[in-house]
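This part of the workshop introduces the protein records we will be handling. A record pairs a protein's sequence with a compact description of its fold. Comparing a sequence with its tokens is the quickest way to learn the format. To make this concrete, we reproduce a full record directly below:
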Amino acid sequence: MVARDPRVVAVVVAYNRSELLREVLTGLQAQKRPADAIVVVNNASTDDSSQVVRETAPESDLIELSENTGGAGGFAVGMAAAITRHDPQWVWVMDDDTVPSPQALSGMLEAVATYPRTDLYAVGSRVTWVDGTDHPMNTPRQHPLATKATKGWASAAGSLAVRSISFVSSMYNADRIRTLGYPIVDYFLWNDDFEFSSRMIRGGVGLSVPASVVTHKTKARASTDTDPGERFRFEVRNKLWLFRYSKALRPLEKILYGASSLARWGRTFLKSPDRATLRAAFVQGVKEARERKPRLNAEALLGAGVPADVLEEIRRAA
């Protein structure tokens, strides 16, 4: 049993996947240990996502944006709404194609209760694909610089010590969010979760929890080096922004993750059937990263229909 029962708010970001969103919300309502509140951010969908929320989870705090702010903006808005409106101790985030098993939240809370120290700032689920196998896009990697003691404490909690966690399903200490702020909106998509989770975990611990299982219903069981086409520019731009401007990683970690990124980009190029598109996207990403740095979140969200109280919290955190 969970020794202490902290207040948890779930945040779902939705964009034009209403039928999958229905499954996600149904999964949240079927939790062995339900979330204390649910925030859904509709990222200016053109389908019936808002109606699905009202029908499936009418108790949810629904925020309807007038502009698509990407996953990064959606999660920033959703987390800020959770913090300012629902006073959580933990914020659990997930995509609208991520269906939680009934033990998803209770599994993470068991790990939180079991971990013996107070420097645990983030926990994440085991992510499977529709066939039940681990999803290669979200496979956890052990923290390369974790101490022997940290690894031992993580193991005792039935978990793996990690340096970053995907937004597909992860939970963050609310006080840590209040102190360090929100995902960077200008990232739009790709590496927003890497930057944010690494920033949350730096100086503390993050855990991947196998007992917490979610199903990531992507169209294919793709890995991180699968050809993304024109969207490769987001990967390149955001990773360069992260290495140059973010405080999420220490200098040695920037070297390690920089080398890993170069190797993965190389594999992507080698496997691609359309290298010309990837090459153009790479050049565009480098160009954008050199031209400017990410804007402050409140500036990036102006005109997107963010409620005043939520925008004020995002402005405060900056």
About this structure: Residues 8-222+292-317 form a domain with the Spore Coat Polysaccharide Biosynthesis Protein SpsA; Chain A fold (CATH 3.90.550.60). The mean pLDDT is 94. The beta strands are 8-14, 37-42, 61-64, 90-95, 98-100, 120-128, 160-162, 169-173, 205-216.
